[in-house]
Task: inverse folding
């Protein structure tokens, strides 16, 4: 797994000192004193292209969305054009009062509680099996399980939408007896598309972490007569915990952003409303168009997702690094 | 289940054992567990592969045969190539246009994005300057901002500068990859030795030249990974183009196929195009994935950096 511990934190504290000193030092001392900035031009040259675009596509839009979320559109009378005014927390109150918002969050949480453990549990099982000597034909299975990840979410959903339809399903018996697209089942049909698409890549992340364990760590366990299951449970799983938590973080972030699959299934299922997932709500609100409210939805979602994944990452770092 | 292994064999298990199929990692397992786990793996291989097989088979059928012939086997005749012919000529070849758009957005966008991420990551890893950690942490915070939460703010900004419904509206945001910078920094810190850079400097090489000739080369496994991750992210992107684009000539494949799929009720013949188009759109990606597979795993494991 990627280990953030590799990134060095040296030189953190003396940032301010260096800046003021660098300004006063003459250029002739450049490179002689340890705390002058060496290769200033190169640093600027390497960083500027990314930072400019980062500012234009992250900082400015986020800032503007926050600004928009504090505005409201008012009309003085019927004949004057609508104008934007400062609205305070008005949009945020509407977000928190919106039952559609809470319902969409609840749907995502339902998926997170059911689909995520199934998907990651399967991924872990497959990764452990591939890492153990009991399975033959590992290369084939690794590829077969990973292939769905190459299919874009929209295409995967189109494909499954056809297969859920009774007239086209490859398993007509199943599709005729189970209404995969009904309002109470469609959430799990979406969950199935997600499981199909992402189990393989999660398996691969875990498998890579397993491969990175030096084999001699198993020697002691083997000498004690431990079998594969015991080794998996007591040695392998604890050692790849950071990777496991990382897959959870990615899954939670992914679920909070759920959009493509329900959007596609919406054309074939009455069970998917235009506000089914949080992001569909943002999209529907901006289509009204009510940009101020949509911006407030975006800000709340970004904060919630950010806080969630940041919290997860903190846990990982405390546990593993 | 476990049989004791002779201690003499242990040192033979090298830490650099190739990632082959049968690296001896444990005692021999019982037949029962081999068979049951093999069966499980086969069943799930069926789960993962059946939809793709269905897509392929459906693409070889005529529209009227889709609902009358068994889903998992071929119908009357093999019409894949005539279907593809119809697909690319339908509506003045709009599908080919979407394909080219996707290649441009994802290919050029990921290549440029990887270069920018490599430069920034290298600078963070190999230079000390005031505010470095503060700057890097703000970029890391960007990783936490979900891409979909950014789509609407980006639209509002694009509207301000009249970029809505242009190539740039989708292309420019796609180039920026904070996660790529993070990966590049981790790799550069581990894979590019300071001594080598100092030696290059002593030899009189400029910073840019050192980066281009030494660092980029040493970072290349990570760069392939960053490129792939970003390529896939852009190729799969749907919300941003959906919000930004009205003109269907600018659509990427995902948006185009979505548009077709939403028309199925009004124009039933589009159903076959959506199916064949889906197949055509994923074949190049599957080939690229499978052939570059080792880079995925290289990128997913920091220990690949020795």
Result:
């Amino acid at each position: 797994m990627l280990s953030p511990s590799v990134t060095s934190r040296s030189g953190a504290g003396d940032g301010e000192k260096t800046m003021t000193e660098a300004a006063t030092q003459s250029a002739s001392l450049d490179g002689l004193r340890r705390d002058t900035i060496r290769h200033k031009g190169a640093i600027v040259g390497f960083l500027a292209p990314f930072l400019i675009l980062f500012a234009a596509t992250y900082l400015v839009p986020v800032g503007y969305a926050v600004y928009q979320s504090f505005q409201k559109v008012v009309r003085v009378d019927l004949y004057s054009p609508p104008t934007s005014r400062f609205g305070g927390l008005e949009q945020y109150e509407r977000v928190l009062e919106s039952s559609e918002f809470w319902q969409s969050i609840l749907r995502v949480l339902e998926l997170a509680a059911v689909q995520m453990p199934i998907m990651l549990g399967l991924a872990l099982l497959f990764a452990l099996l591939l890492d153990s000597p009991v399975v033959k034909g590992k290369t084939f299975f690794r590829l077969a399980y990973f292939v769905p990840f190459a299919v874009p979410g929209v295409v995967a959903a189109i494909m499954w939408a056809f297969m859920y339809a009774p007239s086209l399903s490859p398993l007509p018996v199943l599709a005729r007896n189970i209404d995969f697209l009904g309002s109470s089942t469609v959430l799990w049909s979406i969950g199935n598309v997600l499981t199909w698409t992402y189990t393989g890549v999660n398996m691969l992340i875990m498998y890579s972490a397993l491969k990175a364990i030096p084999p001699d760590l198993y020697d002691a366990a083997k000498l004690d007569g431990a079998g594969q299951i015991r080794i998996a449970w007591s040695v392998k799983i604890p050692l790849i915990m950071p990777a496991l938590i990382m897959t959870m973080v990615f899954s939670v972030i992914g679920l909070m952003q759920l959009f493509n699959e329900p959007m596609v299934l919406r054309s074939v299922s009455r069970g998917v409303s235009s506000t089914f997932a949080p992001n569909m709500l943002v999209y529907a609100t901006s289509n009204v168009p009510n940009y101020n409210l949509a911006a407030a939805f975006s800000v709340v979602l970004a904060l919630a997702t950010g806080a969630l994944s940041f919290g997860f990452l903190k846990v990982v770092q405390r546990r593993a690094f | 289940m476990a049989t004791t292994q002779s201690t003499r064999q242990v040192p033979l298990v090298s830490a650099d054992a190739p990632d082959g199929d049968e690296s001896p990692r444990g005692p021999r397992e019982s037949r029962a567990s081999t068979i049951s786990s093999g069966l499980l793996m086969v069943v799930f291989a069926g789960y993962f592969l059946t939809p793709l097989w269905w897509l392929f088979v459906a693409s070889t059928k005529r529209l009227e045969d889709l609902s009358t012939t068994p889903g998992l086997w071929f119908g009357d005749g093999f019409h894949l190539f005539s279907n593809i012919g119809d697909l690319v000529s339908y509506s003045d070849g709009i599908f080919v246009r979407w394909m080219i758009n996707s290649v441009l957005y994802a290919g050029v966008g990921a290549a440029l994005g990887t270069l920018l991420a490599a430069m920034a990551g290298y600078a963070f890893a190999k230079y000390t300057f005031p505010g470095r950690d503060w700057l890097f942490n703000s970029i890391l915070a960007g990783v936490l901002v979900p891409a979909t939460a950014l789509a609407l703010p980006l639209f509002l900004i694009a509207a301000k500068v009249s970029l809505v419904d242009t190539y740039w509206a989708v292309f420019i945001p796609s180039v920026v990859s904070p996660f790529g910078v993070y990966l590049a920094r981790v790799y550069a810190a581990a894979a590019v030795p300071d001594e080598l850079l100092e030696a290059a400097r002593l030899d009189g090489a400029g910073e840019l030249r050192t980066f281009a000739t030494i660092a980029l080369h040493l970072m290349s496994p990570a760069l392939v990974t960053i490129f792939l991750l970003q390529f896939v992210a852009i190729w799969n992107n749907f919300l941003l183009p959906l919000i930004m684009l009205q003109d269907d000539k600018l659509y990427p494949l995902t948006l185009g196929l979505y548009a077709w799929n939403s028309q199925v009720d009004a124009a039933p013949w589009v159903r076959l195009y959506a199916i064949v188009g889906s197949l055509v759109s994923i074949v190049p990606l599957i080939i690229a994935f499978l052939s570059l597979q080792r880079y995925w795993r290289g990128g997913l494991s920091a220990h690949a950096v020795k």
Q: What stands out?
A: The two ends of chain B are 35 Å apart (CA to CA). The longest helix of chain B spans residues 94-126. Chain B touches chain A through 123 residues (CB under 8 Å).
